[in-house]
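Re: weekly structure request thread

Next one in the queue (434 aa):
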Amino acid sequence: EFGAFFTTDRGQSWSQLTGDFPPVPVWDLKIQTREHDLVAATFGRGIWIMDDITPLEQLAAAKQARVAYLFPVRDQLLYNPDNSHDSGMGTTGYEGANPPFGAIITYLLNGTPVKSARLEISDASGTVVRTLPLTDHAAGMYRTTWDMKAGPPLTGPVPTDSAVKAQAEAAARGRGGRGAGGFGGGGFFGRGAQGPANFPVVPGHYVAKLIVTPESGAPVTMSQGFDLTKDAAQTLTIAELHSLDAFRRGVADFSLSLQHAQARVDSAQTAWEPLKAAAERDSAKLSPELKKRVAEADTAFTHVYCDVGSARGGGRGFGGGRGGAAGPRCPGQNFGGEDEVSTEPVVRTIQQKFQGMSYLLTVTFNPTTQQRSDLAALPADLKKQDAALAELRTRLIPELESALKEAGVEMRAPGGRGGRGGRGGRGGRGGVGR
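Done, posted below.
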């Protein structure tokens, strides 16, 4: 009459199924053989399904563990979910709750004071393709879902505990995506390099590893293997999927290099823009030779800025900025309206080449020959521009600053109102450039 109950000691004591199970009469229970799900027929609340009840069956043994226990992980079909929610029936369409997308991972913490805990997912080669810090260390049973995507540390730094907590709080307030309690969210698409990438892994064998470090004593590690099986609707062969996976890893690696380079561009812009503004303001004090040096430095910075882009969103083809310096105008930008036609030659920049391949992180297509060629060439291209930027930051800008001061040019500290961001958005908030 009041819900469903279970026992771990052959009926000597009973515990109520809590969580999101409704406190309503249950008229029948059935264990679904293939998925090993518990199906409950309730009075007034329809059918209720508990995914994979293996943890309940092993709970008695799990409680004997000193620190923690990792339950077996069920094999999972690796597929691309259809999130359109369009039944073609308008408002009359019925939509039930699907199981969470991904591999379900369940573990138990037995109350031992815990210093840190994390889950790791490794592929068949032993490479860790995903890590998630676990911030809730209270005693109890926990269930999370890995979305079957590679991410940090394979594609970037693992988020800190504080970052995970902040993401979870934002999700709870309705401002985030899938919360930090699972493996969802994160990644980037369509706006250049923005944080570590997430992309689907390939079918194969994987190992979930729970690593718990007590406040006293050595870390405790538990592992469970499972398989991700190929979707019959997937047209690429296993060999093609592995080739795509290698390409995606290359894109993810380059995205981190690009992010770091863009941060250095922003730093150089912060140093250069005040010098340029001072030179323009007191141009009468500059000798022809000094004017030439300033123009050459500005040309050099503009070339790097437009090719590499800015973490603020500047350059060609990126989103709007976060505010601050407007940045130089890049070839091909249109600030004069739809009727303005640029006569400058169109040159594919580093950031444009990167964006031309980054969408492959979310779709399952073979990369083109051009995309593979671009990915192979981009690291050398970025290294060349990084060297030019280093020359600006370490030699040209300091030398020009000294020369301008000697010429009597008044230097003003940067600050004040934020300017316009890069093409495609307003200062202060990013947006996709058009």
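Residues 175-193, 316-324, 334-339, 416-434 have pLDDT under 50 and may be disordered. DSSP finds seven helices and 15 strands in the chain.
Next request, please.
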